Amino acid sequence: MKKLSIVVPCYNEQEAAPIFYDTVHGMEDKLSSVELEFIFVDDGSKDGTLDVLRGLHAKDERVHYVSFSRNFGKEAGIYAGLEKSTGDYVVIMDVDLQDPPAMLPEMLSYIESGEYERVATRRVDRKGEPPIRSWFARKFYKLMNKISSADIVDGARDYQMMTRKVVDAILAMGEYNRFSKGIFGWVGFKSKWLEFENVERVAGETKWSFWKLFIYAIDGIVAFSTAPLIMASVFGVIMCLVAFIFILVIIVKTLILGDPTSGWPSMVCIILLVSGIQLLCMGVLGQYMAKTYLETKKRPIYLVQEEE
Ligand code: UDP
Ligand code: MG
């Protein structure tokens, strides 16, 4: 019998975790073709999440957990969960039931057919989300697909089932800056996409502020595209051309009109503009350098405090 591992990253989810377990447990008869394994990852929660997980482990020996020494982020949680999983198939799920467990049997049937290595899901709408956030998200996916070689699907969730082959490919990407959406797109493999409508979380609250999402988007771009660096060079070339034309104009004008020195305001504007662009490009460069710096340190992606 094949085994299906369910990887669930949790951060301050003491209310949601038991509901999640009960819900999946309640539909096990529909997943009878596989043996189940639960891998909960406690991402340094400050509430009683770890106690809840200990309780679930005591009740059901198929429940395992990894508890981090501090909050390392969902990406690290997914990595740890995949590392600990032993199943032939693995599915990644949010604990807040925003990834409908009702889709599991369908996903499993696609994987079991052997035709697909990965069954991924995407949300077709963003109901219950602030409109401004949806707008930024859509723009982000558009931009990302233009400038990156990784295929990043709009509304793609981390909710996906995959075979061991894909899990191994993802684990082989040991980079420190983990942008999952990019990583899954980058490894490729034959994927089936399923769609579902947005579901509101069952308990607790979202861990993502607008600002956190914005930083996440920047991280994603830096991790999966070097287009901003090219843009910086293009900026430089354009500025040089403009300067060259200016020089010619000024020489000609001086020769013809004998123009005395003037133009203090325009000079200030030019200096401000050019130094602004320089700082911007340095900032872009700095982003890449910072990521390279962190990457070269080869720090572990997460640290475990307790596991079972
Ligand atoms: N999560 C995590 N570490 C974090 C933030 C979130 O493991 O630092 C988990 C969280 O417990 C949940 C999932 O990632 O299972 C998705 O988080 P959330 O529901 O807050 O995000 P949203 O659905 O609002 O995008
Ligand atoms: Mg959620």
From TrEMBL:
Top-level division of the source organism's lineage: Bacteria
SUPFAM superfamilies, alphabetized: Nucleotide-diphospho-sugar transferases (SSF53448)
Protein name: Glycosyltransferase
Record field: transmembrane: 229-252, 264-290
Glycosyltransferase 2-like domain boundaries: 5-170
GO cellular component: plasma membrane
GO terms for MF: transferase activity
Keywords: Membrane, Transmembrane, Transmembrane helix
